[in-house]
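FORM 12-B: Structure-to-Sequence Request
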């Protein structure tokens, strides 16, 4: 998983209540107005609180859901604003329009057919869609039992939702699949399955299931939960894999998720911490969550195939200054100050502003020549702005100069499960429950009880 940055839209402040004059008549006249304004302000706050999270608030945790009849579905966006896609369905399927009404078709399968969106209607090859259908801007294709769908050459297990994008001739493709099927593609995308120990794979499966469940709960009112790759997603490898190790790791932990105080939390993970994982408050959240509070890890640096057990980088300051100004100028938190500082003049220096108890840098100070002179930035945002290949981890030291020298250990944001550390623990004979207890202290493993045929 690449770093998952939580970006919350800021809440608009309620209108400021006007100052009243000291004149008693004015005070009396304004009392009603003040009360009305205060009530309006309160109402505004209430509305905004429901609709969006204020930036000063925090990651909302979700109560453990259930009971379950079937495995929960996750919605994966696999094509965004595509001009056209090729769609194939391997077996019998049902077709529904945007209102949920079934469109009667009698085809047993669908050979690769182009899907386009024109004049507010989706067209799927030569499929005889009902011309007077209520809503052909959205279609759902539901394969029967063992059927799979193929989208422009990539195979997915699940239903496909085609969503025409209003005002354009493009479409989104969203695959709805059960969370256990999804996890098989995540394990294939996230870890070197062939080399990884079974207990490390089980630990990854439980962390990834928790993470996926968290975001599917959180994004329930959006048209999809997450993508296949990128900063905000777990890496998902398409294809219906029949890898025995993946099936075993997923099946043997079926339905198991981590909770903290009976709440589902975002169980972040990363490649290697370099000796100590970091409290999520230093990277993603403001609210402290014990399960994401950080832990010692003596395993990842001992892994012989961990290329980032220790590293050294020299980076020209001009490169650092350019990338920070470019990548962070639109950041909701530091963007406005960064734009002021770097308007027509480059940054002058980067300093360490704060460290975690274990020595990891948690905040940098970027300093410019003028007024306002500087801005504090979360260290992981600096790492991503400079580039994760150039600055693999913030678990490092920094020596300024015309070229800045960084010496450190690890790769990734450092929150939650350390993948190389999990592998090291498994080699030491620890089971997945012990591995998870190390990286998610105070968490519990809870099982979502649902019946689902095992993948074979
Ligand atoms: Zn580690």
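FORM 12-B RESPONSE
SEQUENCE OUT:
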């Amino acid at each position: 998983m690449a770093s998952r940055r939580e970006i919350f839209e800021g809440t608009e402040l309620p209108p400021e209540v006007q100052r009243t004059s000291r004149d008693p008549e004015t005070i009396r006249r304004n009392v009603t107005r003040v009360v009305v304004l205060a009530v309006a302000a309160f109402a505004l706050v209430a509305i905004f609180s429901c609709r969006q999270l204020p930036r000063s608030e925090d990651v909302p945790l979700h109560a453990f859901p259930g009971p379950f009849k079937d495995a929960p579905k996750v919605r994966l966006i696999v094509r965004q604003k595509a001009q056209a896609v090729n769609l194939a369905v391997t077996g019998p399927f049902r077709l529904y329009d945007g209102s949920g009404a079934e469109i009667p078709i009698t085809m047993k399968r669908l050979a690769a057919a182009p899907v386009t969106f024109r004049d507010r209607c989706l067209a799927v090859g030569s499929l005889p869609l009902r011309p007077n259908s209520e809503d052909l801007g959205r279609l759902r294709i539901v394969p029967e039992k063992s059927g799979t769908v193929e989208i422009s050459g990539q195979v997915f297990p699940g239903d496909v939702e085609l969503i025409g994008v209003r005002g354009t001739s493009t479409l989104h493709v969203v695959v709805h699949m059960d969370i256990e099927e999804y996890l098989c593609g995540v394990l294939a995308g996230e870890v070197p399955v062939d080399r990884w120990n079974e207990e490390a794979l089980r630990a990854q499966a439980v962390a990834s299931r928790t993470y996926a469940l968290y975001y599917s709960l959180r994004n329930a009112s959006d048209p999809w939960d997450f993508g296949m790759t990128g900063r905000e997603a777990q890496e998902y490898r398409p294809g219906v894999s029949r890898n025995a190790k993946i099936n075993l790791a997923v099946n043997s932990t079926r339905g198991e998720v981590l909770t903290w105080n009976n709440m589902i939390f975002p169980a972040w993970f990363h490649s290697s911490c370099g000796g100590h994982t970091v409290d999520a408050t230093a990277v993603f959240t403001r609210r402290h969550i014990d399960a994401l509070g950080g832990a010692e890890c003596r395993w990842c640096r001992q892994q012989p195939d961990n290329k980032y057990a220790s590293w050294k980088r020299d980076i020209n300051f001009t490169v650092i200054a350019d990338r920070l100004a470019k990548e962070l100028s639109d950041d909701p938190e530091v963007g406005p100050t960064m734009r002021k500082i770097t308007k027509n003049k480059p940054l002058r220096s980067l300093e360490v502003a704060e460290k975690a108890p274990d020595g990891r840098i948690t905040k940098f100070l970027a300093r410019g020549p003028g007024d306002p002179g500087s801005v504090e930035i979360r260290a992981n945002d600096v790492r991503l702005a400079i580039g994760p290949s150039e600055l693999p981890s913030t678990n490092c030291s920094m020596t300024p100069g015309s070229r800045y020298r960084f010496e450190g250990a690890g790769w990734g944001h450092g929150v939650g499960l350390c993948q190389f550390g999990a592998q090291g623990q498994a080699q030491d004979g620890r089971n997945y429950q012990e591995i998870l207890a190390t990286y998610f202290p105070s968490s519990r493993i809870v099982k979502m009880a649902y019946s689902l045929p095992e993948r074979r």
